[in-house]
Amino acid sequence: MPSPMRRHVVALDGSPCSVSALRRGVTEASAAGTELLALHVIPETLANDPAHRIAGEAMMDALVDAALGGRPLASVGKEIAYGHPAEVIVDRTGETDLLLIGAAFTGAPFDGSTVAAVLRGRRCPVLVCSSPDLSDRMSWAVRLPARRPAWHR
C-alpha cells in the first residue's frame, strides 16, 4: 500500500517573519519531498467582506511564487480559511508533518497571541521562524515537537 503524501503547512499572514517561514517551508518541503500548503487565516468577523479574501489570495500568490523562485515542488497548495487564526492553524495541521510559522520578537520570546496559542495547542512539530531574512542577518528558527491541544483531548 503506498504511503500517503506527506505535508508541510506554512501559516502565512504577509509579515516579514511569515515570509521567512514560507521560504524555509519551500526548502524543507523540497528536501523532504512533501506537499506544501500555504495557509492564510482571515478572522471570522471579516468573513462577509470579499475584499479581504481577494487581498489574501493576491498576497499568497505573489509570496508563494517569489518563494518558489521557479523551483518545482511535488505539490503546492494555497488555502484561505476563516476563524480564530490559532485554532484554524492547529486544526489544519492534524495530518501534517511540520508547521512553519513566523514570530517577531516584540518583547518576550513567542509573545504573539497567535504564535503562543499555536505552540500551546500544536499537534505536529512546529518550526518557528523568528526573524525576517535580511541580507546582513540570517533568520533562525526553533523546532518544537508535536503536542495535542487541550480542546482535542
Explain how this protein is built:
The protein has 153 residues and is of the alpha/beta class. It has a single domain (7-152), classed as Rossmann fold (3-Layer(aba) Sandwich). It contains four helices and six strands. It has helices spanning 16-32, 50-68, 85-91, 113-121; strands at residues 7-11, 35-42, 76-82, 98-102, 126-129, 141-144. It has a six-stranded mixed sheet with strand order 3-2-1-4-5-6. Helix 4 (113-121) links the parallel strand 4 and strand 5 (126-129). Helix 1 crosses helix 2 (50-68) and helix 3 (85-91) packs parallel to helix 4 (113-121). The radius of gyration is 15 Å and the shape is globular. The mean pLDDT is 81.
Largest sheet: 6 strands, mixed
Strand content: 15-25%
Number of domains: 1
Please name the CATH architecture. Answer: 3-Layer(aba) Sandwich
- Summarize model confidence as the mean pLDDT: 81
Helix content: 25-40%
User: Low-confidence stretches at least 5 residues in length (pLDDT < 50)?
Assistant: none
CATH fold-level label: Rossmann fold
Helix-strand sequence: EHEHEHEHEE
Return Rg in Å: 15 Å
Please state the structural category: alpha/beta
Number of strands: 6
Number of continuous helical runs: 4
Strand order of the largest sheet: 3-2-1-4-5-6
**Termini, distance in Å?**
30 Å
Overall CATH class: Alpha Beta
Shape: globular
Task: Give the SSE map.
Blueprint: E1 7-11, H1 16-32, E2 35-42, H2 50-68, E3 76-82, H3 85-91, E4 98-102, H4 113-121, E5 126-129, E6 141-144
Parallel strand pairs: 1-2, 1-4, 2-3, 4-5
Antiparallel strand pairs: 5-6
Helix pairs in contact: 1-2, 3-4
